[in-house]
Amino acid sequence: MNDEEKNETEATPEPDEAQEPEAEAPVEEPAAEEAEETPAAAEPAGDADEAGAEPLTPKQQRKLERSRHGGEARPPRSAADRAAERAQARGAKAAERRRSRARARSKHQGGEGTPTADRSPGSKKVRLGTVVSSKADKTITVRVEVVRRHPVYEKVIRRSATIHAHDERNEANAGDVVRVIESRPLSRSKRWRLVEVLEKAR
Length: 202
What we know:
- Helix content is 46%, strand content 23%.
- By secondary structure, the protein is α+β, with helices and mostly antiparallel strands.
- The protein has a domain at 126-199: CATH 2.40.50.140.
- A five-stranded mixed β-barrel has the order 1-2-3-5-4.
- The radius of gyration is 44 Å and the shape is elongated.
- The protein starts with a helix and ends with a strand.
- 5% of the residues are buried.
């Protein structure tokens, strides 16, 4: 039996040996694939160098322009001369910025926004609004809505403000559309006065 066991053990390594070359063959194939991939990996590196040469920082661009400049060198200048020249260049750029901003402002002023109120200097503001509350004696709370187009973004912006107005005869009620006018301070919060009731609430 010992001899048979030995024969069996000797017979079993033979299939393992047969499997070893198969295991080695796949190992060799990836090595061949790696060899094929290395030149392909080298090609994008060349492309990256070419692509990397295109985007230059502003500092690198200035350095490149200076190196390509073939004209005569300027005479040596003192620090004060260089500072004066720099200040003059900055002043010219600032003037150009002011002109461009003025052009942009004039372009936006002619938009479709709400026109400015036609008032002579010193005249009082007049507003139309809806009465929100008339519970207080001789006082009404009026909601004034303002619809304007944004000067830069051209979006229609709706805003509302509530103001207190003096109503001497208590004639306005909640929901009425009224016209109010600016007045002297009549109380801590009242700076407006009722002119007329345009539309009664239903």
